[in-house]
Amino acid sequence: MMFGRYMGSFHRECDDIMVEIEQINGLQTYRRRCGGETFERLLVSKTGEVIVNPVEPVNLPKDITDFLQMEFTPMVIEPGASQTVYLKFPVEIGVFLESAKDIEVLDVFAAGSQKYTLYGPPTNGVVARYYRSAVYPEIPLVETFREGVMELSVTNASHEWAEVSQAVFSCTDMKIYYDDFVAATATMNILSPTLAETNFVDAPLQTGMVKSVEIYTARKIPVLNRGYLMEWGFT
Amino acid sequence: MSFNLTEIFEIPIGIGDITLEHLVYFLVILAIGITVAKVVSTNVRRALMDRLPKSERELLTKVVYYVIVIWAFVFALPQLNVDLSGLLVAGGIAGLVIGFASQSVVSNLISGLFLMFERPIKIGDNINVSGVSGSVEDIRVLSTVVKMYDGIYVRIPNEKIFTSNITNYVHNAARRFEYSIAIRYEDDANEAIRIAKKVIATHPFALKSPAPSVFVDNLGDDGVNLTAYIWAPARNWWDVRTDLLWKIKQELEANGIEMPFPQRTLTFAEGLEVRTRPAGKDEKRE
Questions:
Q1: CATH number where B122 lies
Q2: Of A16, A100, A120, B277, which is the most buried if we count CB atoms within 10 A?
Q3: Residue B63 is part of which domain span?
């Protein structure tokens, strides 16, 4: 497993991803290789720790949005009904430098490719990271460094049948946990035929999972945990 | 001992006919004016918190404060039997002169305030105003600073911005751009469309929705002209535009589809006859 906290030199290699810190002539060098790309930085640190963990999947190839749009197999839900399903979401890996006083993002990378989309109209919609997943009744098997498992609880609080095939989340309050696999828990509350509210839940999917350090925390971006109101439908 | 408040108020204070009552009224009006000025200026400061730099915000707040205080002072002066008619005439003339002199300044100021509240542009936006294209560096009370794409600093008076057509390229979340791609007549246009769509789909910022559109637009003189409409995030569209076209061209060529060269088909009325010269003639000339 690559995720965790490291002090001093280390070397981790999984599939085509390699992360390491090595001492060369007294200089500490961070080196990462992923998908044929390499990234290297010299580190000057005596007490700093390196943290490698999954982060919110909205940073690559460039940080342009906070939103994640998950498209999945359409589900038709009865008024008042609830259903918990499992989806696969994309994983990005963040590398942080932590000292007693500060934490800083050193590197963000991912094994897969990215695709963005527009949720809503061009005039006042939002650009979102796009990902398509099948719907699973149980926790599916995933490639740990490419995909995570999202437990999504969908509730139809409206008085009409609702067809749902997408959910848009604000990743500013995304809580990611990891162990053998990466996981997040979310809710989707359908309020009317075109309105739904999504939220992330700060709870591990399984006991013993470790909470990830979030990019938004490391970048000191003030965040209000208020979810996202999907105003432009969910089909 | 009887105590009459009315009599106390009618006591002259020793300056002309001014009584204590007049003085109290004067001070009350002034106090109300100062209080109103403080409340209004505090709210102006709060309202402009995110819209103006601190220096300009403070200046504007002070102007609002002193205008209200002066207005209250002038309003209270008649209580002290000060004849304002002369002051009004002088003030009127002075106002006229200052008004003419500062016409454009006030116009720019008012336009600036409207720009700040309407917010058609924000710092960092890519805009085009009156033929000036660039990114907004600063929005001040009297003017807006634009850095043109070639790095040139341009200061535009706010009045000009307010009365001009403003094109804000990044106001919306996404925008569309287009390519014209020409292929030879002998190439399969459907295959070219499929390949172009495939390349567009691999680009992270060529948006999935609204979906890109590639189609045969017209049959040109030299080849079939395809048009591609692609949506991209408004702040990244230029990167996508410069990145994709060459990739599409390379992929089309890799699949045997090439760009057409200008060509003309010539028809000779009596056909074209090719004659060969006898070999001896050329040799003789040499």
A1: 2.30.30.60
A2: A120
A3: 11-101
